[in-house]
Structure formats: C-alpha cells, structure tokens
Known about the structure:
The protein has 283 residues and is α/β, with parallel strands linked by helices. Helix content is 42%, strand content 16%. The chain has ten helices and twelve strands. The strands form four sheets. Strands 2-1-3-4-5-10 form a six-stranded parallel β-sheet, sandwiched between helices. α2 runs parallel beside α4, α4 runs parallel beside α5 and α8 packs across α10. It starts with a strand and ends with a helix.
Amino acid sequence: MRWVVLGARGMLGTDLVGLLDERGADVRALGRADVDVTDPGAVAAAVAGADVVVNCAAWTAVDAAEAQEPAAFAVNAVGAAHVARAARRAGARTVHVSTDYVFDGASTEPYAEDAPCAPRSAYGRTKLAGEWAVRAEDPRHLVVRTAWLYGAHGPCFPRTIARVAAERGAVAVVTDQVGQPTWTADVARLLVALVDADAPAGTYHATSSGRASWFEFAREVVAAAGLDPALVGPTTTAEFPRPAPRPASSVLGHDALARAGVAPIGDWAERWRLAAPGVLAGG
Length: 283
Ligand SMILES: NC(=O)c1ccc[n+]([C@@H]2O[C@H](COP(=O)([O-])OP(=O)(O)OC[C@H]3O[C@@H](n4cnc5c(N)ncnc54)[C@H](OP(=O)(O)O)[C@@H]3O)[C@@H](O)[C@H]2O)c1
C-alpha cells in the first residue's frame, strides 16, 4: 500500500507519518513547501502511483479566516477538490480530514455523521465546501471529521494552558463550550484503521468519546503538568469575544465507525492521561 500524506508537517500530519513509518509503510510525506494543495499540477504529480492519499493540509487559522475567507477557501475547498480529483485519477482513495465547525454547535445531543451542517464561521464554511468537493470528486472518499485536537507537534490548547498557568499562576478558561479533547496520535491510528478495514465510502467522526468543557479539560491539563488544578478559574465565552464564533457544543457521535466495524478512540480523560507526558514535553 503506497501512502501520500499532504500537509505532512502539521500537528496531525506529523503523527500520521510517524505512525506509518513505525509500521514500515511506503509513505511519501509532503509538507506545504513540497506540495501546495492550491496547485493542481503539483498535487497530480505528487499522488501519482499512490493507493491512499491523506489530506491533512488545511488553513487552520480560524479567526484569520473571517477576514480572509477567499484565501482559506482556496486551501480548504479548492485545494481539497484538487487532492480528491488527483487521487481518483491516480486510482487512489482520498482520506480527507474535516472539522466539527461544519455544525452550528447548538445541539445538546452528539452530532451524527449525517446531521445537518450549518457552519457559523468562515473556516467552517470553507471546510464544509471541501467536504462536498471531496465527495463529488472521489466516490471512494473517506471524509473524517475531528475536533479539539492536541498533539506533541504543534501549538495546542494543553501546551498553552500549562505554560500560562506556570508563568502567570492563574488562567481563566471557558465553562460554556463542550467537546471531546482528541489526541492527534489517536486520529492517526483511526485514519489507518479505516483504510485497513476498507471502510465504506462516507463520513466518519474521529474524536474521543465522552464530553468536557474547556475548563474541565484545562484542570486535567494543569494537574498532568504537576500544578494545582485550582490555578484554572472559570469564565464564559461572552467574556472572551473572538472574531470567529466558537461552537458551544462540539460533541460528535461515532455510529458510522461502529457500522464499519472500526473501534472508536475511547474516553477523552483516559486518552489524555496516556498522551499527557509526550504532549506536554513535545517540541
Ligand atoms: N487542530 C484542531 O483542533 C482541529 C480540529 C478539527 C479539525 N482539524 C482539521 O485537522 C486537519 C489537520 O489539522 P492540524 O491541527 O494538524 O493543523 P496544522 O498543524 O495547522 O496543519 C495543517 C498543515 O497544512 C499546511 N498547509 C496550509 N496551507 C497549505 C497549502 N496550501 N498546501 C499544503 N499544505 C498547506 C500547513 O502548513 P503551514 O504551517 O506551513 O501553513 C500545516 O502544516 C485539518 O484538516 C484541520 O482542519 C483540526
């Protein structure tokens, strides 16, 4: 099986390439400097001979996308279309990574894979357009939504919170946004498991199970960093206005994984305890 990973130097891409390397897979790891997904010719050349093409490349600056939606669209929607078209033409399967931001975040129930999408941010709109482009271009697609990612190879919530708590002795974190903190290493394993299982084309959710607020997660993070969890104080979204609205609920359901016979990631708190040493020490 020949793999091509685009966006291979990002937080998720780095863990995916590491996992494939560990497994002795034939993998071509391409960062933005190697292949820009907005360049269809470069993408087509890069995926020649591949069996699986994983698109981890994305414009992920959620707030900046509000003022630069066309630029975000060029990567997240048009770039995704280039990847899926080139993969299909090469006879490869597209694995495309998407986000909980395609939903409105208003539901108190977990979002099913086929729940109506209603993004509230420019980033979410561009990612939703990317999902549709991938579905249209590659009938064998796997669109895999994830959320609340943390990992050892990029800036992420736990590392920021641990640093701020240590430096300032206090940090305020919102109690009114809930989701499923998810380790990039777990998402990488799930992407590979979906391909290994030859999962039916469609949309899957790659998040931990359970739910937590950012506040609850921050307390676990600070405890794992060897600090007093009471350094984390509560605040609300209204007190922290940002350019892009954040979903109040990013809890995703995992029924499609069960139907495909692929094991879900597991409870967020258990996964965090396993991930914490490597993530907090990460470079
Ligand atoms: N992080 C989260 O919490 C989260 C949540 C839900 C979904 N996701 C999705 O998960 C996927 C991976 O995200 P991540 O957290 O690993 O983000 P990341 O660390 O920002 O990685 C994205 C990578 O894409 C690269 N990239 C940007 N524009 C590109 C282009 N035009 N051509 C090729 N590569 C380009 C970036 O390179 P540069 O750094 O050089 O720009 C970066 O290395 C994305 O699809 C994202 O939307 C992430």
